[in-house]
Amino acid sequence: MAKAAGPAAVRARVRTFALGLPGAVEEFPWGESVIKVNKKVFVFLGVGDGSHPPGITVKLTEPEAHAHALTAPGAEPAGYGLGKAGWVRIPLVEPAAPAAELLCDWTEESYRVIAPKKLIAELDGG
């Protein structure tokens, strides 16, 4: 899949993908868009009004995926102590920012860490 035209389009693609996962809902605590499953956040999308640089934050507990995400330009462990639990913030404004497809893969992995087994089984078609 080709990278979307720009950071806003990539963010929109990730948002649409995340909302398509079983049980996913969007909420706006702190004025930011977050996608939750079972009342727990699995992806932070930040604000979409252009007041802050676009980025996403996902929880990646598998060591390979976590390490891979941290190699993205500008990526860093999430603030507020969330980085210690595997949360990674990936900025979307960097010229070599990950493509939407990879960000959707990481979003699905984050979902699988947070979602109940019943919804994961639904996602897997079982």
Biggest β-sheet strands, sense, barrel:
6 strands, antiparallel
Contiguous low-pLDDT stretches (5 residues minimum) are none
Proportion of β residues? 15-25%
Count of helix runs: 4
How much is the average pLDDT? Answer: 92
Distance between the termini: 27 Å
Strand order of the largest sheet: 1-2-3-4-6-5
Helix content: 25-40%
C-alpha Rg (nearest Å): 14 Å
H/E series: HEEEEHEEHH
Shape: globular
Structural class: alpha+beta
Total strands: the figure is 6
Task: Provide a concise account of the structure shown.
It contains four helices and six strands.
Tell me what you see in this structure.
The chain is α+β, with helices and mostly antiparallel strands and 126 residues long. 34% of the residues lie in helices and 21% in strands. It contains 4 helices and 6 strands, in the order αββββαββαα. It has helices at 7-19, 63-70, 100-114, 117-123; strands at residues 25-27, 33-37, 40-46, 55-59, 76-77, 87-91. A 6-stranded antiparallel sheet has the order 1-2-3-4-6-5, covered by helices on one side. α1 packs parallel to α3. The longest helix is centred in the C-terminal third of the chain and has 15 residues, at 100-114.
